[in-house]
């Protein structure tokens, strides 16, 4: 009899232990830790969304780590990261590799319209730049365009827009978007190429200081000049408008997919707008008059 009781007790304990282990491993979007990989060019909006998520879900801890866009994508494929921020379009081969290695359908979660902008020192006589100038300049030995490095989102996007490979373009390098702005006065004959989100926050002191150091050149395309105002970003009239999106290798509804859903809801999109970027998902604002 005693042995029977012991066997029953051991059986019940084993069931409890197994169920506890299953509970510990079950997906949770509102607790746990995660690292997001993002190119430096859109680090600000990524950090703002991460902070918003952690405020809403205090048991989550999200760390934002900067990494060149291409390298971040490779880390995702190799399961070294759960989520990355991307801007360029993936090639059919890259999409195929993603679907095979991650074993998920390629479903980019688009959340913001950003832009690559061309800047010159504030006292520069240059007032605009044409698509033709950009294309010719990127083939010139003068290397008049300054990018923040190889494998960066800015270089990748410009190359894609010009239908070229980055290795086929000629350019100078200063590491970091902010460093380009701060050092551009040393190179009056050069044009800096940076991400808009570097200084797009309208009421941020640091962003304001950076904006005051340079002049953003409108881009001429098909006889018209386009600036990076909200309307041109929303309609994608500005030639170097780019759509930011999340990619994940998480197959269940854990913290990565929870964060993606949050970023694409109205609350997340309000954060995107406060960052000075165009929200990808537009929500109607209804006001009732009484």
TrEMBL record:
<dbReference type="InterPro" id="IPR050811">
    <property type="entry name" value="Phosphate_ABC_transporter"/>
</dbReference>
<protein>
    <submittedName>
        <fullName>Phosphate transport system substrate-binding protein</fullName>
    </submittedName>
</protein>
<feature type="domain" description="PBP">
    <location>
        <begin position="32"/>
        <end position="263"/>
    </location>
</feature>
<dbReference type="InterPro" id="IPR024370">
    <property type="entry name" value="PBP_domain"/>
</dbReference>
<keyword id="KW-0732">Signal</keyword>
<dbReference type="Pfam" id="PF12849">
    <property type="entry name" value="PBP_like_2"/>
</dbReference>
């Amino acid at each position: 009899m005693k042995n029977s009781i012991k066997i029953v007790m051991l059986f019940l304990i084993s069931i409890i232990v197994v169920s506890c282990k299953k509970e510990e491993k079950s997906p949770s979007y509102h607790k746990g830790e995660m690292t997001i990989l993002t190119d430096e060019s859109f680090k600000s909006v990524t950090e703002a969304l991460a902070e918003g998520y952690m405020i809403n879900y205090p048991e989550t801890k999200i760390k934002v780590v900067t990494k060149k866009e291409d390298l971040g994508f490779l880390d995702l494929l190799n399961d070294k990261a759960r989520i990355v921020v991307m801007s360029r379009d993936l090639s059919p081969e890259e999409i195929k590799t993603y679907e095979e290695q991650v074993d998920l359908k390629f479903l980019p979660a688009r959340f913001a319209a950003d832009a690559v902008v061309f800047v010159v020192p504030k006292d520069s006589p240059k007032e605009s730049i044409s698509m033709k100038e950009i294309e010719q300049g990127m083939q010139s030995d003068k290397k008049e365009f300054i990018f923040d490095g190889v494998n960066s989102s800015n270089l990748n996007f410009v190359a894609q827009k010009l239908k070229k490979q980055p290795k086929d373009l000629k350019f100078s390098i200063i590491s970091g978007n902010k460093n380009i702005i701060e050092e551009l006065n040393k190179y009056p004959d050069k044009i800096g190429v940076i991400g808009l989100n570097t200084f797009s926050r309208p009421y941020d002191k640091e962003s304001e200081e950076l904006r005051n150091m340079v002049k953003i050149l409108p881009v001429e395309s098909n006889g018209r000049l386009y600036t990076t105002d909200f309307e041109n970003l929303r309609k994608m009239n500005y030639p170097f408008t780019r759509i930011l999106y999340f990619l994940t290798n998480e197959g269940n509804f854990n913290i990565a997919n929870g964060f993606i859903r949050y970023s694409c809801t109205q609350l997340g999109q309000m954060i995107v707008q406060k960052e000075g970027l165009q929200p990808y998902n537009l929500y109607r604002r209804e006001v009732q008059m009484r």
